[in-house]
Specification:
- The chain has 2 domains: about 140 residues, Rossmann fold (3-Layer(aba) Sandwich), CATH 3.40.50; about 60 residues, no CATH class.
- It is built from 9 helices and 6 strands.
- It has a 6-stranded parallel sheet, with helices on both faces.
- The two termini are about 25 Å apart.
- It binds magnesium ion (MG).
- The site of magnesium ion has 6 residues, from loops.
């Protein structure tokens, strides 16, 4: 898509709760992309005496088959499926984890304004743990939820009612920021009123197509 977009107008007075995705939204998605598309195939190739190309084909086919499911995000699933210690391998790469510019300021500002700030990620708890270890984003959240806690990814509308059993929030006064347009669609269908798509998921990757959702490239555009 083109990089032309108008910065969204947000009336922060109408928002009590901010739901935030993690990977791509707060953190540079290149870490995950590189891990799955380069580092893991290389390790798999060495272990199984395949060429890198063969290993990539095998892993890409397996990953593609699980897209949009909870397995896609599940380190336990991939540890069994690939017979590789996926969580331990992620730890080897952890120095590459990066927070997007302005994210720490944005989170601090939400906290100052007394917003209820909740992370809702499809990431597995082990993935979440390594990212919290390597960044300071965790300090700014009232609550952090992994979709694995519910057994339901954000691509399933049920997650938004599961979340309401965990924490009080009024969908009509809630903002979701998520680079996953499937998640934005289920949230919209559930009645979450304010939706934003961060399209700049990494300096090393293409912009996301926001599929009609209000979009922004930099947190400076939406800073309260
Ligand atoms: Mg994401």
């Amino acid at each position: 898509m083109s990089s032309n977009h108008t910065s969204p107008q947000i009336n922060w007075n109408q928002i009590d709760t901010v739901l935030l995705d993690m990977d791509g939204t707060l953190l540079d998605l290149h870490f995950d992309w590189h891990f799955w598309m380069e580092f893991l195939p290389q390790t798999y190739a060495e272990k199984n005496q395949l060429s890198i190309e063969q290993a990539k084909q095998v892993i890409h086919a397996k990953v593609h088959a699980e897209k949009g499911t909870l397995n896609w995000y599940c380190l336990d699933y991939w540890t069994a499926e690939l017979d590789l210690p996926v969580a331990a391998l992620k730890h080897e790469m952890k120095h590459q984890i990066q927070v997007h510019p302005e994210v720490m300021n944005f989170l601090a500002r939400l906290q100052q304004l007394n917003k209820n700030v909740i992370m809702v990620t499809n990431a597995h708890r082990d993935s979440l743990a390594v990212k919290l270890e390597m960044t300071e984003i965790g300090d700014h959240f009232d609550l952090m939820v992994s979709a694995h806690d519910y057994g339901t990814p954000k691509e399933d509308i049920a997650i938004w009612s599961h979340l309401r059993n965990t924490v009080h929030y009024n969908p009509n006064r809630t903002l979701l920021i998520d680079d996953n347009t499937h998640a934005l669609r289920t949230a919209q269908a559930y009645g979450i009123r304010h939706l934003l798509c961060p399209i700049h998921v990494s300096p090393n990757m293409d912009l996301v197509d926001p599929e009609g959702f209000p979009a922004f490239k930099s947190y400076a555009e939406i800073m309260p």
